């Protein structure tokens, strides 16, 4: 792919994202020249916990986990990000080091937004307003995560996770909703702060009750009403 083709592709992708949709094509084309494209393999870190960032990261494809790690080796996935998501912007604004590490869950393409370009974008009222809405949404997500982790049982935490995954990645397969991505019980444990044996036991119970069907690393939701009842929906 030629440099011009790559720049055109990036401009097209950016124009499709809410953060950049209001920019004129010519203005966006100029800024694209300052973006650095990077690829990450599954399991490769994007940045480390405690790192001082000089770039924000905009995902073009793939997925990234924002993960907290303890000195004892325990890991919790706080957020999972996909195409169109930006992260690292809060650290650029505040100047504080990262609280989480970012790790690619799948092969991922990303654009790095350097501090100078990010500051120019902040001068655009449309971009700043949309970014503020996104950051407020992230704060709400983290509050829901904290409420779920601190106040609810493993059963409720797992039910909420499976509902969220089916809403985002679900595909109707006739007798249920297939979560159309492989996900291991170890990763599920990191997402709801639970051990793999406990996850395995609860999923086998739901499999026997025909709430879900587990086939290797794929899960099909057979009775969404039962999981919704167990999830204790937020009011």
Topology:
Elements: H1 3-15, H2 25-32, E1 36-40, E2 45-47, E3 55-61, E4 64-69, E5 75-81, E6 86-87, H3 89-94, E7 101-104, E8 108-114, H4 115-122, H5 125-151, H6 154-169, E9 170-172, E10 177-179, H7 185-192, H8 196-208, E11 212-215, E12 218-221, H9 224-230
Antiparallel strand pairs: 1-8, 2-7, 3-6, 3-8, 4-5, 4-7, 9-10, 10-12, 11-12
Task: Provide tags for this entry.
235 residues; alpha+beta; Jelly Rolls; Arc Repressor Mutant, subunit A; 4-stranded antiparallel β-sheet; 9 helices
What does this 3D model show about the protein?
The protein has 9 helices and 12 strands. The chain has helices at residues 3-15, 25-32, 89-94, 115-122, 125-151, 154-169, 185-192, 196-208, 224-230, and strands at residues 36-40, 45-47, 55-61, 64-69, 75-81, 86-87, 101-104, 108-114, 170-172, 177-179, 212-215, 218-221. A 4-stranded antiparallel beta sheet has the order 1-8-3-6. The chain has a 4-stranded antiparallel beta sheet with strand order 2-7-4-5. The protein has a 4-stranded antiparallel beta sheet with strand order 9-10-12-11. Strand 11 (212-215) and strand 12 form a beta hairpin. Helix 1 packs across helix 2 and helix 6 packs across helix 9 (224-230). The protein is globular.
CATH architecture of the largest domain: Sandwich
Widest sheet: strand ordering? 1-8-3-6
Radius of gyration (CA) equals 20 Å
User: How large is the share of residues in beta strands?
Assistant: 15-25%
The level 1 CATH classification of the largest domain is Mainly Beta
